[in-house]
Amino acid sequence: MKDKDLFRVGFIQNSPVFGEIEYNLSIAESLLTQNTADLTILPELFSTGYHFLNKEEALNLSEVIPEGTTTQSLIRICKKSQTAVIAGIAERDGSHLYNSAVIVDKNGYLGKYRKIHLFGTEKNCFDQGNLPLTVFDIGAARVGVMICFDWRFPETARTLALGGADIIAHPSNLVLPHCPQAIITRCLENRIFIVTADRIGTEERIPEYPIHFIGQSQIVDPDGNILYRASEKEEESRVVDLDINYARNKFINSSNNLFADRRTELYRL
Ligand code: ACM
Questions:
Q1: How many Å lie between the centroid of ligand 1 and the Cα of residue 150?
Q2: DSSP output for 6-51
Q3: Are 40 and 46 in contact (CB under 8 A)?
Q4: What distance in Å separates the CA atoms of residue 206 and residue 248, rounded to the nearest whole number?
Q5: Nearest to 187 by CA among 217, 214, 160
Q6: Cβ(77)–Cβ(47) under 8 Å?
């Protein structure tokens, strides 16, 4: 923390080379050691790339958390740079595979999240996430995690916000064009910050089925202001100072509190 109320959060928007874990990690490491963030978010599956052709290929590139190379490297980087990172990786747990995110800080491994809403061909490789939506204490901030397509289910962000999240870290490999704008609504609905860390580029693992990623990583505040939005085509990283208290005030005017005004007795969820 550089100031009593300010939390420095950043993202890295990368363009991973499929299957080249060491190379992708080295690019992330050089950016992480240059920035001065309290917390940096990396994209979904940032060290492997996205489009696994089958479960066997995904298994070969997956890692056990926290013993695997990627998590251990992130722990080493966080210790050295006295920072925290949330990053998407392919997780192996016995014969199960998850599209996961690890949460690490300067003291080591804090936990993991397993994507609960799988998108498209992910269903051929990964198991559905089976861990509760959890809020982690990172420095002065309370941080929830959702991965990419989880945005399309408003229950995800709501659950994290009701659980006390000030910020949602959103590692992504966005394919659908609507997400950057829709995230503004998630922030307004919950009066929270959301940091989406996306990737760029196209994977043509199957030439007739290219997958294009839309970039536009962004940081949005509790009133839906876009504090920064990255380009669609360039790799970049960005750090922004957030006033965490802004997300802890759920009043939108003197008579409306977004959480206290909920009519839970009339909802059917
Ligand atoms: C996605 O969930 N990676 C589109």
A1: 8
A2: EEEEEEEEB-PPTT-HHHHHHHHHHHHHH---SEEE--TTTTT-S-
A3: no
A4: 46
A5: 160
A6: no
Cβ of residue 173 lying under 6 Å from some atom of ligand 1: yes
Bridge partners of 100, per DSSP, are 89, 114
Cα dist from 122 to 98, 112, 245, whole Å: 10, 19, 37
Question: pLDDT category, 35, cuts 50, 70, 90?
Answer: confident
Residues facing residue 135 across a β-bridge: 144
Mutate to test the pocket of ligand 1, among 148, 152, 153, 198 (most ligand atoms within 8 A of CB): 148
Mean pLDDT within 4-33: 94
CB 169 within 8 A of CB 41: yes
Among 44, 124, 211, the mutation site with the greatest number of ligand 1 atoms within 8 A of its Cβ is: 44
Does the reported pTM lie above 0.85? yes
Nearest Cα neighbor of 234 from 88, 15, 30, 21 is: 15
How many beta carbons lie within 10 A of that of residue 198, not counting itself?
28
Strands, E assignment, the chain: 6-13, 39-41, 84-93, 96-105, 108-114, 135-138, 141-145, 167-171, 193-197, 200-203, 211-214, 218-220, 226-229, 236-243, 251-253, 256-257
Q: What is the pLDDT of residue 4?
A: 55
